[in-house]
Design brief:
alpha+beta
Length: 68
C-alpha cells in the first residue's frame, strides 16, 4: 500500500489543481478563479490533512458550501 505524502499548503493546492486538470470537479469549469477544498476538514487531522487525496478543486469560494 502506497503511503500518501504530507504536503505544504502551497504544495497541496498545486498538486490538487494539477491532478484535477485545473477544472472544477463539480461543474467542469476552468475559467475564473479556482479553489482547493479539503474533503475531510483540516481540523480533523493532527497534521492538517494536506494530502492531495484529501483535496478537490472547486470553481469558486462558494463551492466550499456546496461541497459540504
Amino acid at each position: 500500500m502506497k503511503r500518501h505524502q504530507l504536503l505544504t499548503r502551497t504544495g497541496f493546492r498545486e498538486s490538487v489543481l494539477a491532478r484535477d486538470n485545473y477544472r472544477c470537479v463539480w461543474c467542469g469549469r476552468s475559467d475564473g478563479p479556482l479553489d482547493v477544498h479539503h474533503i475531510i476538514g483540516r481540523k480533523a487531522w493532527i497534521c492538517g490533512g494536506y494530502f492531495s487525496a484529501n483535496g478537490v478543486t472547486l470553481c469558486d469560494p462558494g463551492g466550499h458550501t456546496r461541497a459540504e
